[in-house]
Specification:
The protein contains ten helices and 15 strands. It has helices at about 25-35, 65-85, 140-145, 155, 185-195, 220-225, 245-250, 315-330, 340-345, 350-355, and strands at about 5-10, 45-50, 55-60, 110-115, 125-130, 165-170, 175-180, 200-205, 210-215, 235-240, 260, 265-270, 270-275, 290-300, 300-305. Bound molecules: fructose -6-phosphate and magnesium ion (2 copies).
Length: about 375
């Protein structure tokens, strides 16, 4: 039996009002285009959104980075862009940076997380989708899920997880990667992944190489060379029977973690887990938020979704995120609410500085 591939490809191709949420007409179009491919290119599909990003969830048997799958996603986003433009939605086509498709959507704007695996006798997956933050936002959570025994009891008491996991970390600036075997190398790994704007966890594997998690790592700013919004990442996590249990995978999201993004992609703010009905960015264009859909994969069919954060178990973290938002918002344009200067280089700030550059003069001795 050929392996199953899960592909999650996302883009912001226009929203309303402003950068707040996607329009139902775009979601309908995307869902229809994917449905037409079920039984042909795809086995199954599901379309949703988090804030202003459309998320295409697809299963198939063609492996990762498959040209036809990426072409399909590109075509869907192009068609949605047309609708967005016809309604003058805000930022219509904003993530379609490439002029023409050439085999892979990577580097063209859309974000991609994919994984190929042999389906187990029962195979639960959790798909996380975020808005108003960057790919490194997953670092903290992946560390907690796959390396922290205070989060994941199975690391201690389940023999099938006792050997730990291997993390593939990418350096987004120098385009290089490194593998860390955990728990042996957690201190080495934390030295890097604690700087999530540059170092991001791309994959997590079992020691035998079986895939456990996959994230999107595109950074639009680095690709475009100018401010084009944050990258609003996605992540796929496999669960149960040798992987962290579903409850262990969602548990770290009870911690109100500060991430980079939010207003103008230039502010730190609390990463709030929400149900789909609340996945609309409003306050200060945010706060940064994440939804999680759970599925059982059955011969490639997606049984679900279960809207995992639509649960009172996450009410307290939402309240704490709101409190944190009040506290950090009060700092207005001051760091550390505003990102550090190095990070602001990839925003619109350099344009402001250009107008002032001639007015600076040496300080007299
Ligand atoms: C953040 C985001 C928004 C915009 C902000 C200004 O990722 O997309 O916060 O940066 O609404 O948007 P413009 O410059 O288009 O008016
Ligand atoms: Mg937008
Ligand atoms: Mg977005």
């Amino acid at each position: 039996m050929p392996k199953i591939t899960v592909s999650v490809i996302k883009a912001d191709v226009g929203s309303y009002p402003g950068h707040s949420r996607t329009h139902p007409k775009l979601l309908e179009k995307a869902a229809k285009m994917l449905k037409e491919e079920e039984g042909k290119l795809l086995i199954d599909s599901f379309v949703t959104h988090c804030g202003d990003d459309i998320e295409l969830i697809m299963t198939h048997r063609h492996g990762v980075d498959h040209e036809k799958i990426h072409q399909l996603a590109w075509n869907v986003f192009m068609e949605c862009t047309k609708i967005a433009k016809s309604m003058k939605l805000y930022g219509a086509g904003q993530d379609m940076l490439g002029n023409a498709f050439s085999g892979n959507v990577k580097g063209l704007g859309p974000g991609v997380a994919e994984m190929e695996f042999e389906e187990r006798s029962s195979d639960p997956i959790l798909i996380f989708m975020a808005d108003k933050t960057e790919p490194g936002a997953w670092n903290f959570f992946l560390y907690k899920i796959f390396a922290d025994p205070f989060n994941t009891a199975g690391l201690v008491i389940d023999p099938s997880m006792h050997d730990g996991f291997v993390f593939e970390v990418h350096d987004l600036i120098h385009k290089r990667r490194i593998m860390f075997k955990c728990p042996e190398e957690i201190y080495d790994m934390l030295a890097y992944i604690g700087a999530p704007s540059r170092y991001v966890i791309k994959h997590v594997f079992k020691p035998d190489g079986t895939i456990g998690a996959s994230t999107s790592t595109q950074r639009l700013n680095l690709m475009a060379g100018r401010y084009v919004g944050k990258d609003d990442p996605v992540m796929i996590v496999r669960s149960q029977s040798g992987f962290p249990a579903v409850g262990e995978v969602v548990e770290p999201f009870t911690i109100p973690v500060l991430v980079a993004g939010w207003m103008r992609g230039s502010h730190h703010g609390p990463f709030m887990p929400v149900g789909l009905c609340d996945a609309n960015c409003t306050r200060f264009d945010g706060p940064p938020q994440v939804i999680c859909f759970g599925f059982q994969v059955s011969d490639g069919e997606l049984i679900g979704p279960a809207d995992m954060f639509d649960d009172p178990g996450f009410d307290l973290v939402r309240t704490r995120c709101n409190e944190l938002a009040d506290i950090i918002r009060a700092q207005g344009p001051f760091e550390p609410h505003r990102l550090s200067l190095g990070e602001m280089e990839y925003t619109t700030l350099p344009n402001v500085e250009k107008t002032l550059v001639k007015r600076w003069e040496p300080i007299p001795e």
